[in-house]
Write a structure and sequence with these properties.
The chain is α/β, with parallel strands linked by helices. The protein contains 8 helices and 14 strands. The longest helix is centred in the middle third of the chain and has 38 residues, at about 110-145.
Amino acid sequence: MESSEKKRRESLSAMLTQSVDRLSAPESLRGLWHRRQDGIPLPSNTALAEVVELSRSILFPGFYGKSTVSPSTIKYQIGVSAERLQRCLAGQVLAGLAFKPVGDGDLPHCEIDCLKDKALEISTELIARLPSIRETLATDVTAAYNGDPAADSKAEVIACYPAIKALTNYRVAHELLLLGVPLIPRMLSEMAHSETGIDIHPGATIGRYFTIDHGTGVVIGATTVIGNNVKIYQGVTLGAKSFPLDADGNPIKGIPRHPIIGDDVVVYANATVLGRIHIGRGCVVGANVWVTHDLEPGTKTYFQS
């Protein structure tokens, strides 16, 4: 019995060793591991959750955050939140900037110091852009309130509507992307996606007075351009029709491949708009419609059974 038990344990140990060898083999790790820079943390969803909470508390005081806001304390509270946001965001921006080092070795200390300075500058610049971000979000709140007869107040829109949460993350992430930050903008957008079911790539360009009614299942691709006063409903996809391939058969990255939506357009539930097409000003795209060609301004297209 003891001999049989010993053989069983040896067999299990051998299986474990074999698995570790296979999991450590370079050919199985190709493209699936990351060499962390010494002294620089990886991007953190926990830290970015704090970035989101602080950003929302600054942009919409009293609706988010842990403190009660009053006219006499609001400047102090926003100041404290802004300082915390700067520190937290600088750390995450640094993690993003260092996430894809050149080569396999560690970055020299002088380069790390430069990245730290750049991360601090970017985090400060993002805070400097928050007033403009708030102005744009205020138009989004107005669009949501005016476009929904069930909304009792703009306060209800800010507190409850998933579109405002998703758009807040998007508009912050978009500015970080414009400031040259890798990885972190996409993480912020994916956090909103998980929270709301609304998937907006930070690379998309979205105008003012934009609203998403209900929102679940909405997808807005990376090179989408959306004008002003546009409304879309749940399940809408603004996506790519196809992916051009290079000579080796690999997808060509970075080319415009998503729709351009003009001003004053409405896209109803579960419509799919694909490719680098133009949807002209004032168009109405009906529910469950599949659009892969340009629409002249004022066009109305509906699904007909």
